Amino acid sequence: MIDWPGMWNEDDSVRRFSPTRAILHLGSLIYRLIASSRNRLYDRQILKSVRLACPVISVGNLTVGGTGKTPCVIGLAKMLARHGYRPAVLSRGYGGKNQESVNIVSDGTVVKQNAAAAGDEPLLIARSLTGIPVLTGAKRKITGKAAIEQFNADVLICDDAFQHRQIFRDIDIVLLDAERPLGNGRLLPRGELREPTESLRRADCILLTRADKAEKPTDEIVRITDASGIPVFRSVHRFKEMVRPQDRLSLPPEDFRGKSVCAFCGIARPASFKKSLLDSGMHILSFIDFPDHYTYKSDDLEAIRKHFSAQNADAWITTEKDAMRLEESPDFLNRLFIARIEMEMQPSTPSFDDFILRRLKKVSNEQRLTSDE
C-alpha cells in the first residue's frame, strides 16, 4: 500500500526524488490535462449543467481529505431551516453499499439506513438534522428532483460537489483547511489537489476552516480571491460535548481536562483530531488511527479493547463519524465517549449567514422574474 501522506510530504527530502514519486508526477500531468479539459468544456457550455427547479448550494473542497464539509453542511442546513427554508441534503454516499439511483437516508423524521448502506457521512448528517431529508445517489440531478418532488424542498445542499458539475449550482462554497489549504500544491496523485488552484475562481465564497490554526490565507489564495472579488470567511472547529452512547450522558469537554484517555479514529486527518484532544487538556495514553471511512471488523475492535484496557484510561474516545460505523457493535460502542464537534463561524461583515441568505434571495428573485416572462 502506498504511503500517500509520506509521498505528499514535501519536507521529506530523502525520498523526494524516488521512482514512485516520479511516476506519480507523470500521473499528475495527465490528471491536470483531463481535469482542465473537462472544466473548459463546462465553462464553454459544450457540456451542459442541468438547472433544477430550486436553488442549489454546493459545499466542496479543492483537496482530498477532511476540510470540515460535514459540519459545514449540518450547520448550513440548520441555518436555512431557521430562516424558513425547506432544505434537503444530497450526497453521493461514499462508502455506502446502497446503489439505488435514489436512496432516502432520512425523510427528516426517521433515519432509514445505516452506515453500511448509506455511508458514514450521510448517516451522520441525517442523525444531526431534524425535519431535513437526506438523500444519496450517484447522480445529483436525479436525487435533487426526488427531493423537490417528494419532500417539497426549496433549496438543495450538495455535499462534496465542487468537482461534480452535472447540475448547476447557484452558490459554490469551497472549504480550505487553514493549516494546509492547498496541500503540497500538487495535483493528484502526486499531491492532494483535486483541481488546479485556478479553479477557485469558480467559487462564490471560500471558507477557511480551522482558521485558529493559521494567521492568514496563503499568498496564492489571496491572489485569486482579490483578483476575482471572492469573499473569504473563517471558521473554527469546537468540541461541543462528549456523549456516552450507553446512557446518552452528555458532558462538556472541560470535564475531561487533565483526564487520561485512549482514542482512535478512521478519518482523513487523524492528527487534527488528536491535536484537538490535546488542546482540550486531555492526556493521551494511546492513539490509534485507521484509514478514512475504515470499516471496523470484530478483530479490530477486540484488539482496540485489549490495548485500551491495559492502559487504565479514564475514558475511551472516538469521533462522531466513527461512531456511525460502530452502531452495529453496540457492546463496544457503549464503552466509548463520542467527541461531537461543531463548526463555529468567526465574526465578519457581512456574516457568512447573511452572505448565503442574500445570495439565495437574489437567486429566488431572478428565478421568479424568469418564470414570469
Overall description:
The protein is α/β, with parallel strands linked by helices. The chain folds into two domains: 56-236 and 347-365, Rossmann fold (3-Layer(aba) Sandwich); 238-344, Rossmann fold (3-Layer(aba) Sandwich), CATH 3.40.50. The chain contains twelve helices and 13 strands. It has helices at residues 4-8, 19-43, 69-82, 115-118, 120-128, 140-151, 219-228, 270-279, 298-309, 320-324, 330-333, 352-372, and strands at 56-61, 87-91, 103-106, 134-136, 155-159, 171-177, 205-209, 232-244, 249-251, 260-265, 283-289, 315-319, 336-345. Strands 1, 2, 3, 4, 5, 6, 7, 8, 9, 10, 11, 12 and 13 form a 13-stranded mixed sheet that branches. Helix 3 (69-82) packs parallel to helix 5.
What descriptors fit this protein?
373 residues, alpha/beta, Rossmann fold, 2 domains, 13-stranded mixed beta sheet, 13 strands
Query: What series of H and E elements makes up the topology?
Result: HHEHEEHHEHEEEHEEEHEHEHHEH
What is the average of the pLDDT values?
Answer: 92
Which stretches of 5+ consecutive residues score pLDDT under 50? Answer: none
Derived from helix and strand composition plus strand pairing, the structural class reads alpha/beta
At CATH level 3, the topology of the largest domain is: Rossmann fold
Number of domains: 2
Q: Cα distance, first to last residue? A: 58 Å
Strand content: 15-25%
- Per DSSP E runs of 2 or more residues, the count of β-strands stands at 13
Count of individual helical segments:
12
Task: Give the biggest sheet.
Answer: 13 strands, mixed
CATH superfamily of the largest domain: P-loop containing nucleotide triphosphate hydrolases
CATH class of the largest domain: Alpha Beta
Taken from the alpha-carbon principal axes, the silhouette is: globular
- CATH architecture descriptor name of the largest domain: 3-Layer(aba) Sandwich
Helix residue percentage: 25-40%
